[in-house]
Amino acid sequence: MKTAIAILDFGSQYTQLIARRVRELQVYCEIYPWHTQPEAIHALNPAGFILSGGPSSVYEENAPTLPLFILRSGLPVLGICYGMQLLAEALGGMVSASPQKEFGLAEIEVTSSNPLLKTGRQTVWMSHGDQVKEMPPGFYRLASSASTFIAAMADPARGIYGVQFHPEVHHTPRGIEILRAFVNDICGLQPEWTPENIIASSVERIRRQVGGANVLSAVSGGVDSTVATTLVHRAIGNQLRTVFVNTGLLRLNEAEQVEKVLKQHLGIPLVTVDASAGYFDALRGITDPEEKRRVIGAKFIEVFEQEAARAGNPPFLVQGTIYPDVVESSSAQGSQAQRIKSHHNVGGLPESMKFELIEPLRYLFKDEVRRVGEALGIPSQLVWRQPFPGPGLAVRCLGEVTPERVRRLQLADAIFREELETANLLNQKPAPGCALLAQAFVVLLPVRSVGVMGDRRTYQETAALRAVTSEDFMTADWAHLPYDLLGRTANRIVNEVPGINRVVYDITSKPPSTIEWE
Question: At what angle do helices 195-210 and 366-375 cross, to 10 degrees?
């Protein structure tokens, strides 16, 4: 039975958005690099294909090509931007450079009745320098824009469609309708990818993989590790041993919250290891952010090896790997990406530790993980908790990481989050069209400045507030918070947190900055 869509990635920055939009329609899909072997894609048993955009030109030497098995399959195909040009070139049409490049919002006129696009005018997002000059035999034009005569084309008899614009981005207001028409109407798929079905299939798969063996899980308190551990516990119960390592680098009272949720609310047996003293000793004198990550990763491995030995070295290990991690490691252009900084998650385990991995979230996006978490009964305040770096506050405490400075940062961060929560801006499930904060936190700077408190001179550190809005964390804009909220936050921090006498607000976007400071 065909229940999925296969997405071929030709290097577009929007490929993950295509998959997320298809999943929003409650239809399962997977992303494959364009050069993936046909057997691997056939194993999905897809009902149709979507071809992504990409930075290449089809007429360039060594440009990505359209695998012939796609056309030979007889299944519906939707080509987006470069994907449309590939279809045109492969089927006997002509593609050339556009006399006028088209980037940004555009108006298209849909003139031909068809299963994919509704007739009339609509706004779309364009991003292309090439165009289909001549359509292949059997195709007819669906739409035009002021700069692109063939903005969409179709051969409905064969179920092949192409659009020059990007329906997957939110700048195309009716884009989800277009994808729904292709996925539901043209490919005939039903909305069956629901949290309840995901849980049921995951539980069955975990039981089949584990059998009667024991499993070890290291929870961090984040959404991914909590949901993954809860899924495994539902599947195998007391075969699971769960370990929580308190590094001393979590937010204020977070360690106690994690223990309460897992033990009392979810009924998951938990071993808590207070390793904070060891982490602070290992970080003494270190200020370089990459070195901080290396030290924290090494310390985690040391603690984890000890706990694994105490548990009898179970053969299975739970990891909260999610689908963007998988896609980015095998994307069409992943090897060409420059490393800006090490991944936030703690480093990998040594090869000497022979675990078979259980990754129940491996094919889920973050929003799907949250919905599964809700269906599992995990409290909302944890499910919708904002992303938190694996090295914890060590990479928000610029300069040397000491217990005194981390405590200072914890208190300042708690005040900022409390003010945002009071304003209903933090840790909530976003309503449609509501721009809640994607991430908000405090950074402690090793910058001292002169201040005056009670007629006395002070020379203390600076706290930087960081708050951003983002659709996908690939780009982010600084949040335009109310001045009175910022004023209250700054006033409380300098009055309630010893050692801070100045508060600043970060108003840079990503790019050029990153969301985290280290």
Answer: 90
CA 105 to chain centre: 25
Q: Give 117's DSSP letter.
A: S
Would you give the DSSP letter of residue 338? P
What is the DSSP-derived secondary structure letter of residue 264? I
53 neighbors 12 (Cβ within 8 angstroms): yes
Gap between the Cα atoms of 312 and 130, Å rounded: 60
User: Distance (Å, rounded) from C-alpha 367 to C-alpha 389?
Assistant: 18
Distance CA 406, CA 345 (A): 19
Residues in the chain: 518
* Cα–Cα distance, 396 to 389 (Å, whole number): 9
The torsion defined by the Cα of 248, 253, 254 and 256, in degrees rounded to 10, comes to 100
Residues of the chain with CATH 3.30.300.10: 396-505
- Alpha-carbon gap, residue 30 to 323, rounded angstroms: 9
Structure token digits, residue 328: 């980015």
For 468-478, what is each residue's pLDDT tens digit? Answer: 988 767 678 99
Summarize pLDDT for 432-489 with one digit per residue, the tens.
544 568 899 999 999 999 998 877 889 999 999 999 988 767 678 999 999 999 999 9
Q: CA-to-CA distance for 14 and 340, rounded, in angstroms?
A: 20
What is the fold of 195-383? Rossmann fold (3.40.50)
- The two tokens of residue 370 are 């949250």
Contacts with 342 (C-beta within 8 Å, 6 or more apart), sequence order: 290, 293, 294
CATH 3.40.50.880, the chain: domain bounds: 4-186
Q: Which amino acids are annotated catalytic?
A: 81, 166, 168
Q: What is the CATH number of domain 396-505?
A: 3.30.300.10
CATH topology of domain 4-186: Rossmann fold (3.40.50)
User: Which single residue is written with the structure tokens 């290990």?
Assistant: 317
pLDDT digits (tens, 9 = 90+) for 336-377: 333 334 443 434 556 666 788 899 999 998 889 999 999 999
Residue with tokens 């005194």: 404
